[in-house]
Amino acid sequence: MQKQIICIGAALVDELYSATAPMLLATTNDAVVHRSAGGVSRNIAHQLALLGLPVQLISVFGNDGEGDWLKTICSYTNIKLDAAITTHSLTGKYTGILNYDGSLFTALITNAELELITPEHLQKHKELLANAAYIILDANISVESINWLVDFCFDKKIPFIIEPVSVPPAAKLSKMSFKGVNMITPNEDELPALCTSKQYTTVQQQAQELLNRGAEKVWLHNGAAGSILFTREQTIHLSAPNVLEVKDCTGAGDGSLSGFILAQYLGKSDEESLKIAHTLSAEILQVNGAIATHIKQDELLRLVEKYYPN
After folding, report:
1. Could you give the maximum distance between any two Cα atoms of the chain, in Å?
2. Nearest to 244 by CA among 280, 282, 278, 275
3. Which of 59, 194, 211, 217 has its CA 20 to 30 A from that of 174?
4. Does residue 152 carry a pLDDT above 90?
5. Residue 291 maps to which CATH number?
6. Cα end-to-end distance, the chain, whole Å
7. Mean pLDDT, rounded, for 213-239
């Protein structure tokens, strides 16, 4: 049986309002709206499924029309929901306000009841989890459940990846042991929030703390400046590819992680994985929504040469 990628965390409805001119505070701004399926874990699962990998999504859906809509999209893209939860609460929603240049101005989020993804629920589905090639978690779920997964993955030798999502979820992990964590993927704001000490002056010091606490890799996302992958043996810097027109920045980080996981699943080196990750992220920046629906696995691998010619 082929091992699956299991994504655990949020499935949301994304509503993105893009301003048609520079944002003005405390007044009305003209905008256009785009609605799509979202949520960090759901986005990653969706992109990986489109790239041809077997995927399970463990998330919480509301018992409403929007929850049914998200489940239909999962079914259409061949995302399995064998351990998903349906609750009587409303389906979660992410509302993003974008500047006219596509950058994020601010955002609001209402999560469905992700606290329902408890250690008990995970324990009930341990046979499913034990067959994972990778388990990817967004940090919206409880610390207790994250700790359970860290221990489980360490025991079963399953690569476990944590996506911090934003500063508040990252901060709740600041005292956690990362022994058993294959990779953590913060941006510049989330990295210091993950650290116990607030006295560090460099990202190298911050990343080193996470490595000392047990993480095998720390992948720092720096947006237009590219990214840095820290391990105990080496540090890899990779510049971001040149994108002439950014339509929508939402989901670029999720797509980048999807590309990295695909590459690792295919047995690529860390440096090759970074190039594939950045390539997918660049493609997502040029479309509306968080998913590059136009790209299949073979085309993505060919596009690396376009953005990173030898």
Report:
1. 57
2. 282
3. 59
4. yes
5. 3.40.1190.20
6. 37
7. 94
| Residues 288 and 263 sit within 8 Å (Cβ to Cβ) | no
Which secondary structure element, helix H or strand E, spans residue 137, and what is its range? strand 132-138
Separation CA 282–CA 307 (nearest Å): 9
Total tally of structural domains belonging to the chain: 1
Query: What is the spatial distance between Cα 60 and Cα 10, in angstroms, rounded to a whole number?
Result: 7
Could you tell me which of 54, 133, 51, 77 has the C-alpha nearest to residue 301? Answer: 51
pLDDT in the model for residue 34: 85
User: What is the spatial distance between Cα 236 and Cα 229, in angstroms, rounded to a whole number?
Assistant: 5
Taking CA atoms, 123 is separated from 157, 187, 273, 281, in Å, by 17, 31, 32, 34
For the entire predicted model, the pTM comes to 0.90
Question: 180: left (phi > 0), else alpha (psi -120 to 50), else beta?
Answer: left
- Structural domain boundaries enclosing 227: 4-307
Q: Give yes or no for a contact between 41 and 137, defined as CB atoms under 8 angstroms apart.
A: yes
